[in-house]
Amino acid sequence: MDPVRNPYAPGAGQRPPELTGRDRELQQFDVVLERVARGRPERSMILTGLRGVGKTVLLNTFRSMAIQKLWGTGKIEARPDQSIRRPVASALHMAIRELAPRHRAPDRIEEFLGVLKAFAQADAEPAKGKVAPRRWNPGIDVPAARGRADSGDLEIDLTELFVDAASVATDLGVGIALYVDEMQDIPADDVSALCAACHELSQSGGPLIVVGAGLPHLPAVLSASKSYSERLFRYARIDRLDRDAADLALLAPAEREGVTFTQDALDALYDAADGYPYFVQAYGKVAWDIAPETPISEGDVRVAAPEAEGELAVGFFGSRYERATPAERDYMRAMASLGDEPVPTSNVADELGRKPSSLSPARDGLIKKGLIYSAERGLVAFTVPHFGHFLRSQPV
Fold it and tell me: Start and end of every Cytochrome c domain (predicted)?
């Protein structure tokens, strides 16, 4: 069939042609937007799940929903080696720019932009032996304010900045939403500051929310920072699609192009993709390209499967495996040999014939790289679905 008309989209964070199986989360977020805009108390939302389940897609969809309601929005992607000060400043600058044309008091906007500029430039003093960061100009053409959000203490500054931003949004009867992807990668001190700022907003009722997405251990990261984070956010675990949602993700876009699948083909595709949205798109795309005509058959899926698996091995699995050091690869192979469920760290050590304490650097390195996570105390698991199967299929 015509590859140009192929509707499937197996890309990182790329919205699929048919977003299925997420109605509950979309309805929840719509309620959050309405309640916050009306001054009702509401918690910010946190999405968690393995890689490839569509967290970023859902986060972007949430942002689109806020924009449609005329909210100000901004988005950042956290990095473990970067403070959130400057990214948050840029994101809130974008949010305020979206609101500014509707605000009746230009002086009020300029006042906030002065605070925002001061916040962006108020980097704390560098640690001994470290080079001071280059002074950053965030492209705000107003003088930096003094005495507000410029102390250099991120917790104090972020709280003051959020309160001031929420005040601007209140004037317009809308809200501001800050979206944070890869939230588990925010440095520990910055997580504490972000939680404290959100806590202040939850008490004051300011119309500013933080919507985060991250790996399954993100709730533990937040809880370790501030104990009240368990009550501060509404957590939604994003998992694989059920059978009906997975079938609809394949059928709906195909039928818009005059193509369909046999029932046996849908059975084979669900077995291969296991309901994970990224895999659904990856197998569907190759099956479309392989099939000579509609309906796409089970035979077409069988022929397509090795090619789809080869593409996943290079782009989805292999690129992550290559980031690991030799010691980290040994650790992951030992995990894979023990199965696909979370495994005790002591069993991994036994598999390698090592003491658990000697493997801490490899384990910690894999967690920092986002390849494994601590499912609970003493247990580790892969952040990527089917990664164990991939490792077992590779030559040693």
Answer: 170-336
